[in-house]
Amino acid sequence: MAELRLPSLFTDHMVLQRDEPVPVWGWSDPQATVYVVFAGQTKTTTADENGRWQVTLDPLSVGDPRSLVVEAKQDRLEVKDVLVGEVWICSGQSNMQYALAANADGDLDTLHLPNPNLRYLTVNGVGTQKTCDDFDGAWETDQPGVRKEFSAIGYHFGNRLQGTLGVPIGLIDHSWGGSSCEAWVPREELSGNPLYEPLLKRWDDLVAESDEPAEREKYARIHQDWKNRMLEAVAAGEPIPNWQRPRHQLLSQKRPSNLYHSRVEPLMPMAFRGVIWYQGETNASRAEQYRELFPLMIDTWREHWGQGEFPFYWVQLADYRAEREHPSESDWAELREAQTFTLDRVANTAQVVIIDAGDGIDVHPSDKQLVGDRLARIALTRDYGIEVPYLYPRFVSMEVKEGSIVVELDNVGGGLKTHDKKPVLGFAIAGEERNWVWAEARITGNKRNKVEVSSDEVPEPVAVRYAWADNPVCNLNSSHDLPVTPFRTDDWPMVTAGKH
């Protein structure tokens, strides 16, 4: 006899997505009749031969907290304090995982009174190569002790939406610091493609050299201890203790497909609004590959989820590392370019530019409120019909004039400006010999949407670059104080070309 069971997604204090069909699923005895009751709806189904069952609730409206009841034979489950509102997934690596308590002014953020219309779910679990149907975690209400450990970007994004829309917001954080993009993609999508075969072979060689079953058994003992403490905390209404990560590479956040199976699959086919994403640092040394890998990841999630082209909004890499005296090549610049290219390849996507908000000596910029707010600008406009500036100026075209190059940008608002009222900084220029030098630049055009770039050292220029460095010194913004997207007009060989 199988016990009636719901996945960890369905726990007290959860948020269900409004205005969309809502799948509810779980497990029971094979062939058992299952009843699901919520908000005046009763849905009935029969479990399959493996005991899995699923119903779909009709689109729901926002209302007071209610209970979701599931019954099968003599078993009855009640999920209490369920809200209906907007559900967003927070994904990526450490800059998304970065806790509110570590954020600039995080101490003040944790002093806020509890917001009953903000709910959090942190997905935990070891990386795996096998299909997963559940994860470890539980929904939590907004309390200072819970809030401070949650994603700072997620919190500020959700808090901004909640305060503007006036509806419950559910935030699901399944990010993992240091994760690689390929870890979020099922292996079958990577296999057979020459672009990824060297990467897969490196991991296959590591598997051959390691005792993976022993490593998993060792971690399972540590994990069970944490799980027991997690369940005790949930029962007591206390913050869930920090999850203890495995240290072996085969169980890690870098191995291809590990996180797709442990952190994406278990959420399917949940109804939600969209995804906010901050990742790319780990893949910077393979930026050319990322041009294909990142779109593949988004397309794969959408295809397997079966919820159409849901919104997918990401944060472009911030400025980081030492400033350079002279223009030079940069793998971080190439990764940013790969992210920008994805805008034109994948529908219903948008990008936040934070080239003005990084930290030269810390890969984790501490002002996550700025990032959360910029992501919220996108969602408010694109998904909720509240028009606020959210588009970043991008390169459109260039024209070579005698001794200079004029570049045209779009999304400039009322016109380009420098954020510090200084002359335009951040442009480099080169001739046919491809020797880059810093350039003088000035805003021009009737709409202040053009920049004329020149240098006495390059009398016959052919290409320009803007903010093309790990940590560029640049200051060009739209009239809405949104920074210009880094770009280059050349297509000369990349430093990450061929790196797999």
Summarize the structure.
The chain is an alpha/beta fold and 500 residues long. Helix content is 25%, strand content 24%.
Structure in words:
Helix 4 crosses helix 11 and helix 9 packs parallel to helix 10 (331-345). With 500 residues, this protein is α/β, with parallel strands linked by helices. It has eleven helices and 23 strands. Strands 1, 3, 4, 6, 7, 8, 9, 10, 11, 12 and 13 form an eleven-stranded mixed sheet that branches. The longest helix has 25 residues, at 212-236. The model has no long low-confidence stretch (mean pLDDT 96). It is globular, with a radius of gyration of 24 Å. The protein has helices at 94-97, 106-109, 144-147, 152-165, 187-190, 197-209, 212-236, 258-264, 287-305, 331-345, 368-384, and strands at 15-17, 22-27, 33-38, 41-46, 52-57, 66-72, 75-92, 118-122, 139-141, 169-173, 274-278, 312-315, 349-352, 394-401, 404-410, 417-418, 427-430, 437-438, 440-444, 450-454, 463-466, 476-477, 487-488. Helix content is 25%, strand content 24%.
What is the straight-line distance between the termini? 49 Å
- Rg over alpha carbons: 24 Å
Name the structural class.
Answer: alpha/beta
Mean pLDDT: 96
Largest sheet: 11 strands, mixed
Model regions low in confidence, pLDDT < 50 over at least 5 residues: none
**How large is the count of helical segments?**
11
Query: What is the global morphology?
Result: globular
- How much helix, percentage-wise, in residues? 25-40%
Percent strand equals: 15-25%
Can you count the beta strands?
23
